[in-house]
Structure formats: structure tokens, C-alpha cells
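C-alpha cells as discussed.
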């Protein structure tokens, strides 16, 4: 049987921002690791976007060789403590585990987390330097991965980040109780030790232009994410008391607004909060509002089965007292000077759309009113236009940056990856893009050296 992971009690945890999952002890991790069948053709690896050698790192846990286990993971992923906590393993490696059919897939995510947390081993920082310089725009998982992989190859890498702290969504979006910021800082610290420089408070497109980076660096990677929140475009959405989930979460995670007045930024503590949406962002916002003392309901236009949020997060939210109102869509936010209530309509599910999910259809005459003094909109995010508007880069669907299979944009020396190239995705998809881009940038720079006649057998 799967070894259960200890967790903070829901009654206690809604009063704090400490991590909910407490992680395996050494003995629990070894017992869980010993269940792995060490398959010769491991289907779990096939489903891992960065192809971690899962049976090999698990085998090393059984041998209590945790440093070696970390080394195996780090061959494919520089952010193991982060991925062990936030990757949707139940849809990836764990769903493909041979034991999944019996509902007992190996808890690969929690084992990855255990290794990252218990290991003292550091990355090799004795790297032979190359002369080329690479600029990375954005310090989310895509940017951090490109930077780490290129630094390991000897390139001089500088990351430019718009916010005052690096990490992207890992820092400003995902709450402390799911991903402690000391874990993010530790893994960014490892990358900095490779020699990567991080310049914060630099908005490319305003403070500096992409053109200037192209002139001053040998290659550029864009990993600026998709941080622009979408709204429902319904009456009343501009009323005070309506937040985008992005703003609400940033106030808490980055600006520590829950500690106000001991922090500079305040946040509204609603008595009755409606969170609109069904993804990870909606569930994070709902669980934060709950910790601020609010009565919280998640309103979603499809049913629970269609919710894109991770199952583990939905269960945690439910256990913390978050309510769910499914097959419901807001049509109007009502209030004089402030949000007072929301008019909603009941929905039914029609035919499947292009994404394979059934289309929600409003049922005429089923409108009803729900009281609320706070509404948090979490219906999706798209690319922020600041950088895009300042360039002539070719764009794809949804104003994402168009890239080829090597993550190269329409500008020869500019590469891109992560959410800016595909809209909202996952941390591990951003990491996989970062890895692919780092390989392509290395190949591009080696070819350039060759063309310039500077290549020898030593530096090929
Ligand atoms: P980001 O993480 O968005 O980082 C982009 C960085 O670029 C930011 O730091 C930004 O400030 C910076 N930037 C933007 N514009 C500029 C500019 N012009 N100049 C300089 N810097 C700039 N995925 C999961 O796998 N599991 C989860 O549990 C999960 N939960 C999530 C919860 C929330 C609240 C959110 C918002 C997303 C969640 N995701 C989750 C999705 C995941 O976080 C993203 O897919 C991932 O972070 C994308 O990585 P990225 O590197 O492309 O961009
Ligand atoms: Fe172990 Fe499951 Fe992977 Fe087989 S598929 S190697 S049992 S984790």
C-alpha cells in the first residue's frame, strides 16, 4: 500500500500559511521507494516531460544514497524541491506507473521532494567558462532552467526580472502553504552559485529594449510567462471588492499583505468571498481567502470532473471548508459603492469542444443571487503585452510568441519558452522548454563560433 504523507490538520492549517504537506520521513521514504518494481521499460519515465530516470533515483533512496538520488534527478531537472511539490504527477509519471491500475502508483512526487529536502549535495560549480554572453528575460521556471543549463555549459548568463524578487509564479503566485518560499530561494541560490547573475526591477520593453539586449548579448531567451489576468467582461466587474486572482495572490505571496500593518501592502479580508474559476489559480485564491478568515465558495461553470485544478488541491480546499458551486456562471456583479452580491445562472454541459471538454450552456430562467462582499476572478491569464508591443517578433495564437521546434523566434538570436509561447501551462512544461532552448542556444552559439573560424577541437 502507498505510504500516506503526513499533513497539517485542516482545523489548524486554516489559521496559518505553513506548508500543508509535511513530507516523508527517511523511514517512510525508504518504505515507499521499496514498493517500486524497477520496471525494465519504465512507463513513468515516458510520461515525465523532462525524462527523469525515476527508477534509478528511487533505487538510490532504497540504498539510503540520497546524494546519488539527487544527482540522478538533477541530470534532468534543476528545481526538484519545487517540482516535487507542484507538478501534477497524478496526470504524468504517476498516472503511467505500473501500479496505478490498482490505485497504488508510487508516490514519485513526494519521493522527489524528500530527496531535494534531505540532500546536502550541491551542483558542480567548477565550470570552464566560455566567452559568449546570454541574456534571459524573466526568472520563472523557464528562465531559471535555461540560465542553469547554459551556466553549466560555461556561458555567462544574466537574468533580467521585472519584479523585485526572482522566481516568477513560484514566488508571486503559488502560496507559501503549497510551496514555501525558502525552497524557491534555496533552488534559485543553487543556480546563482553557478555564476548566473539576476538583475531585478528591470522591465524589458520599458527599462531596456529587446533590441539593446540583442546588440549586447550573443543570444537572448524570453521566458516572461503569461501574467495578464483575463476578466469575465460582465457588468459590475469594476466595483471595489473585485480582485483578479493574480493581484490577490501577489499581494499575499510577494508583498505579505496578510501581515499588514507590519507589511506595507494591505489586502481586503472579505466576509463572504466568491472565487470564479476551476484551475489551480482559483483553488489557491480560495484557500488564501479562507486563511484570511472568509467564508469562501468556488463558482465554476462546469462540473468537478472538468476542473483543471489538481485533485490533491481540490481535496485540501474542501477539507479546509471551501465550498464548491458547480455548473454555475456569474452574469452580473451588483453593488452601489462596493460588491454586495452576484447574479449567477445555472449551466448544463453540451457537446465536447476542441479541448475534449463538454461546453457549458446557460439554462434560461435559472438566474439567482448570491451574497458576497468580495469576488476573486480566476478564469485564466494571457501574455503581458509590455515586451511584445516593443518588438516586431512574430506572434502566434493568443498573442503568444511564435517559436519553432528549437524554441527559436523570428529573430535569429532570440529564443523563447514557457507560458509566453503557449499560454497557461505547467511548471514542468516551462522547465522542459527551458531545457530544449538551452540545447538550441548552445548549438546556435557553437555554429556561430564555427562560422567565425574560432572553433577548435577543444571548444567545439
Ligand atoms: P512565469 O513563472 O510566469 O515567470 C515569468 C517571469 O517573467 C515573472 O517573474 C515576470 O515578472 C517576468 N517578466 C514578465 N514580463 C517581463 C518583462 N517585460 N521584463 C522582465 N521580466 C518580465 N503549474 C504547475 O505545474 N503546478 C501548479 O500547482 C501550478 N499552480 C499555479 C498557481 C498559480 C496561482 C499560477 C498563476 C500558476 C500555476 N501554475 C502551476 C502554472 C505555472 O506556474 C506556470 O505555467 C509557470 O510558472 C510558467 O513559467 P514561466 O517561466 O513561463 O513564467
Ligand atoms: Fe517504479 Fe512505477 Fe516507474 Fe515501474 S512505472 S519503475 S513501479 S515508478
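Sequence:
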Amino acid at each position: 500500500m502507498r505510504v500516506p504523507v503526513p499533513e497539517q490538520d485542516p482545523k489548524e492549517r486554516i489559521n496559518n500559511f505553513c506548508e500543508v504537506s509535511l513530507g516523508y520521513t527517511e523511514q517512510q521514504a525508504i518504505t515507499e521507494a521499496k514498493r517500486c518494481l524497477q520496471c525494465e521499460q519504465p512507463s513513468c519515465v515516458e510520461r515525465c516531460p523532462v525524462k527523469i530516470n525515476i527508477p534509478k533515483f528511487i533505487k538510490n533512496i532504497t540504498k539510503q544514497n540520497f546524494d546519488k538520488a539527487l544527482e540522478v534527478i538533477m541530470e534532468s531537472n534543476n528545481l526538484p524541491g519545487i517540482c516535487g511539490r507542484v507538478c501534477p504527477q497524478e496526470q504524468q509519471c504517476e498516472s503511467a506507473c505500473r501500479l496505478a491500475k490498482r490505485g497504488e502508483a508510487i508516490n514519485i512526487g513526494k519521493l522527489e521532494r524528500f530527496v531535494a529536502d534531505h540532500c546536502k549535495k550541491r551542483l558542480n560549480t567548477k565550470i570552464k567558462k566560455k566567452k559568449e554572453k546570454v541574456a534571459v528575460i524573466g526568472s520563472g521556471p523557464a528562465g531559471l532552467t535555461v540560465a542553469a543549463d547554459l551556466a553549466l555549459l560555461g556561458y555567462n548568463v544574466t537574468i533580467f526580472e521585472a519584479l523585485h524578487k526572482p522566481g516568477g509564479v513560484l514566488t508571486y503566485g503559488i502560496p507559501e502553504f503549497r510551496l514555501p518560499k525558502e525552497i524557491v530561494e534555496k533552488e534559485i541560490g543553487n543556480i546563482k552559485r553557478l555564476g548566473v547573475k539576476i538583475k531585478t526591477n528591470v522591465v524589458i520593453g520599458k527599462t531596456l529594449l529587446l533590441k539593446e539586449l540583442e546588440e549586447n548579448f550573443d543570444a537572448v531567451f524570453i521566458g516572461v510567462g503569461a501574467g495578464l489576468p483575463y476578466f469575465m467582461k460582465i457588468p459590475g466587474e469594476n466595483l471595489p471588492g473585485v480582485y483578479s486572482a493574480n493581484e490577490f495572490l501577489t499581494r499575499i505571496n510577494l508583498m505579505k499583505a496578510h501581515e499588514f500593518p507590519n507589511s506595507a501592502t494591505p489586502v481586503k479580508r472579505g466576509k463572504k468571498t466568491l472565487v470564479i474559476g476551476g484551475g489551480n489559480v482559483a483553488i489557491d485564491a480560495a484557500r488564501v481567502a479562507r486563511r484570511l478568515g472568509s467564508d469562501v465558495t468556488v463558482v465554476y461553470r462546469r462540473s468537478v470532473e472538468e476542473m483543471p485544478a489538481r485533485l490533491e488541491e481540490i481535496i485540501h480546499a474542501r477539507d479546509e471548508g471551501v465550498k464548491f458551486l458547480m455548473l454555475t456562471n456569474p452574469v452580473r456583479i451588483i453593488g452601489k459603492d462596493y460588491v454586495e452580491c452576484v447574479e449567477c445562472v445555472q449551466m448544463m454541459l453540451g457537446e465536447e469542444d476542441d479541448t475534449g471538454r463538454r461546453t457549458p450552456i446557460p439554462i434560461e430562467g435559472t438566474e439567482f443571487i448570491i451574497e458576497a462582499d468580495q469576488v476573486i476572478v480566476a478564469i485564466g491569464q494571457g501574455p503581458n503585452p509590455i515586451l511584445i508591443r516593443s518588438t516586431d517578433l512574430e506572434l502566434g495564437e493568443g498573442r503568444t510568441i511564435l517559436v519553432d521546434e528549437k524554441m527559436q523566434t523570428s529573430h535569429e538570436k532570440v529564443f523563447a519558452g514557457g507560458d509566453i509561447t503557449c499560454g497557461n501551462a505547467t511548471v514542468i512544461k516551462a522547465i522542459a522548454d527551458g531545457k530544449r532552448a538551452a540545447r538550441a542556444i548552445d548549438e546556435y552559439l557553437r555554429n556561430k563560433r564555427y562560422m567565425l573560424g574560432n572553433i577548435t577541437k577543444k571548444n567545439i
